[in-house]
Amino acid sequence: MQHEIEVLAGADAVAQRGAALIADAARRAVADRGAFRFAVSGGKTPWQMFAHFATEDVPWAETEIFQVDERVAPDGDPDRNLTHLRESLGSAPAVVHPMGVTDPDLEAAAARYAAALPERFDVVHLGLGDDGHTASLVPGDPVLDVSDRLVAVTEPYRGHRRMTLTYPGLTRAALLLWLMTGAAKAEPLARLLEGDRSIPSGRVEAERSLILADTAAARR
Predict the structure, then answer these.
(1) pLDDT higher for 46 or 67?
(2) How far apart are CA 24 and CA 53, in angstroms?
(3) Structure confidence by residue, pLDDT tens digits, 131-190
(4) CA torsion sign, 44 to 14 to 35 to 170?
(5) Residue 136: which of 204, 85, 184 has the closest Cα?
C-alpha cells in the first residue's frame, strides 16, 4: 500500500494537524452521508490529538467513535485506552462505543463488537509500535492470521491480552490516519514506508493511508 506522509515540527504539531483533519472529515461526512464514523487507537500523541479534537467544530450528534483496540483490564484502569480517550474528550458530547473487555467471555464480546461495526469507517486512527505493531496486531500473535473475523482477542502482550480490529476490520477504513512521534518510531516507520510486510503494520490495507510524523520519527 502506498502511504502519503506529512512531516511536522513536533508531537503537538502532529496532534493539532490530526485533530484538524479529523474534524474536517467529520464535517464532510455528515454533510454527505449524515454520519461520521471514526475508530481510534491508544497512545500519548493521540490523547493530545483528541484533546484538540474536542475543541474543534464537530457535528457531535452525528459522530460515532469506535475503538481499534483495547487492553483487557477493569473499567477506569489507567491501562485502558478508553480511560484516556474519555479524559481527553472531556465534556465533548461524543458517542463512544467501548470494546467489551470486562466481559467474562471475551470471544463472545469480540463477536458482538464486530456485529455492531459500520460497513465503512470514514477514518481509522493508527499508531506504530517500536516492534512494528499497529492496533494490537503484534509480532507472532495468531490474530495476524485471522481472516474471517473483524474483531479478535490476542494472546498476552506486554502485560495484557487485548481485543483488536483484525486486518479485515481495518480494511473498512476510507482513510487510515497514522500518528508517529519520537525517535523510537524512526526505524519502524522506515520499514513501513518501504512496504516491509514482515512487520504487522506493513500488512494493513485500506483505500488511503496518511502518515503524520514529527521530525524525530521521520529521520531515516
Answers:
(1) 67
(2) 10
(3) 999 999 999 999 999 999 999 999 999 889 999 999 999 999 999 999 999 999 999 999
(4) negative
(5) 204
Residues 6+ apart with CB under 8 A from 43: 127, 179
CA distance 185 to 216: 8
Short-list 21, 26, 27, CA closest to 8: 21
Residue 92, domain CATH: 3.40.50.1360
* Residues 39, 55: Cα–Cα separation, whole Å: 19
What amino acid occupies position 107? E
Q: Say what the alpha-carbon torsion angle 186, 152, 23, 204 is, to the nearest 10 degrees.
A: 40
Span 93-120, pLDDT tens digits: 989 999 999 999 999 999 999 999 999 9
| Neighbour tally for 90: CB within 10 Å | 11
Calpha distance 201→186 (Å, rounded): 14
Q: What is the distance of C-alpha 17 from the center of its chain?
A: 16
Residue 213 has pLDDT above 70, yes or no: yes
Instruction: Give residue 150's pLDDT.
Output: 98
- Cα(60)–Cα(77) distance, rounded to whole angstroms? 26
Domain count, the chain: 1
The domain containing residue 189 runs over which residues? 4-218
